[in-house]
Amino acid sequence: MHLKSSVAWTVAVLVSAGASFAAEPARAPAPPPKLPPGVSAVLWKLSVPPGAEPTPEKVALGEKLFKDKRLSADDSVSCETCHDPAKGFTDGKDRAVGIKDQKGTRNSPTVLNAMFNAAQFWDGRAATLEDQAKLPILNPIEMGQPSPEAVVTKVRGLPGYSDEFQKVFGRPVNYDDLAAAIAAFERTQYSGNSRFDRFIFGDDKALNASEKNGWALFNGKGRCNECHAANIVSPLFSDQKFHNIGIAAHKQDFVQLAREALGTVRLGDQKQIDELALQSKFSELGRFLVTKQENDVGSFKTPTLRNIAITGPYMHDGSMVTLWDVMDHYNKGGVSNPFLDGGMQRLGLTEPEIDDLVAFMFTLTDARFDKLNVQEQARQRGRKNTRPERDNDAVQGKKGNLGDIAPNPDLAVKNPAELGAYGSPAPVMNPSPAKK
């Protein structure tokens, strides 16, 4: 994503967020925290709306609320239930499970780096972290509270909270402040300290040969960087856009479903859209529920690839168990449907190339999760021979019409793995005679 578009979406986030914050006691803006190398300090500043700075007191209150199951209707589910810090702020399940063991239709995305998202949720139905924090508490199959007023009444009755809200916000408990506190905690959950970050800033030994080749393929034949590029203004490995890549096409007649939805969805009714997204057959329409635009049918947000190795299962519905499954899906060009994104085409990747790409993605895990990363790599490798998404005929162009494959990168001439993704070239690694 270019600087101009990055600033544009950030400004949009700030403008949309401004009206949602209740007035707080005047205080000097909090200074930016010490950030890991893979997190842009400039983008961090742009992504924190005025008045929403994560002060220590607000963060402490937000963390307490984030972990408190009593925010749910039956005291059984908290935000942390689906966003467990020990699991990369996900739950390891295909789809989120709420009160009374009710299972929704969407996979739990990670909270890590969510502060940089242009919009929240898989379909972008919430503009800010504050809006995002409010909806699960009220969704009938997530935390199940009947209304904001019921939440406020319950929290006011819990020991300690009234005093803490008074101390942090200077007023009694209210729903906007509750969401602001949770959002403040989430704004401290950023990630940018991976082996990839060390490599791109000059540590040539941080990646092995397979992983470096995976990075080259990521920027070349694999075409991953078309939606998952990373640079100084966008450290997320995400273009912040919505795409139909053929996941939901496994299950639905999109055309008929969209016709039905046109008479059901009320634009701007955030609560209705939230419930349709998690509880109904319309869930697979994705971004269409938010916009009612035909080109959004079956489209879902490009997720960050940071910590992707430990935040599976993958896709909006958790339907893919391993990164090999994900690569098989892209390698065949997705699943054909009338609304398939025009960027989807067969890749023609060989098995060794897929292995290298998967190896590279495991380098995007933050150092704090190193142990889990090793465990997950072993688990996924153990399932490598179970490949439900693989379709060699489609990959080889023997069926379908998904274009010609991209050429292999010529590493002797220009290796994309040697290009600095954060604004300046990394040191050249073992230059060939042609580069001297």
Mind explaining what this structure looks like?
Helix 3 packs across helix 8 (175-186), helix 5 crosses helix 8 (175-186) and helix 15 packs across helix 16 (351-361). The longest helix has 16 residues, at 3-18. Residues 1-26 and 420-436 have low confidence and may be disordered. With 436 residues, this protein is mainly alpha-helical. It is built from 18 helices and two strands. It folds into two domains: 49-186, Cytochrome Bc1 Complex, Chain D, domain 2, CATH 1.10.760; 195-246 and 298-418, Orthogonal Bundle (Cytochrome Bc1 Complex, Chain D, domain 2). The protein has a two-stranded antiparallel sheet with strand order 1-2. Helix content is 37%, strand content 1%.
From the structure above, extract its key features.
436 residues, mainly alpha, Cytochrome Bc1 Complex, Chain D, domain 2, 2 domains, two-stranded antiparallel ribbon, 18 helices, 2 strands, disordered N terminus, disordered C terminus
Unreliable stretches (pLDDT < 50, length at least 5) are: 1-26, 420-436
Number of helices: 18
- CATH fold assignment of the largest domain: Cytochrome Bc1 Complex, Chain D, domain 2
What percentage of amino acids are in beta strands?
Answer: under 5%
Determine the fraction of residues in helical runs and give it as a percent range: 25-40%
What is the H/E order? HHHHHHHHHHHEHHHEHHHH
The CATH architecture of the largest domain can be given as Orthogonal Bundle
Provide the structure class.
Answer: mainly alpha
What would you give as the CATH superfamily of the largest domain? Cytochrome c-like domain
User: For the record, what CATH class of the largest domain applies?
Assistant: Mainly Alpha
Q: Using the alpha-carbon principal axes, give the shape.
A: globular
Taking the sheet with the most strands, its summary is: 2 strands, antiparallel
Amino-to-carboxy terminus distance: 32 Å
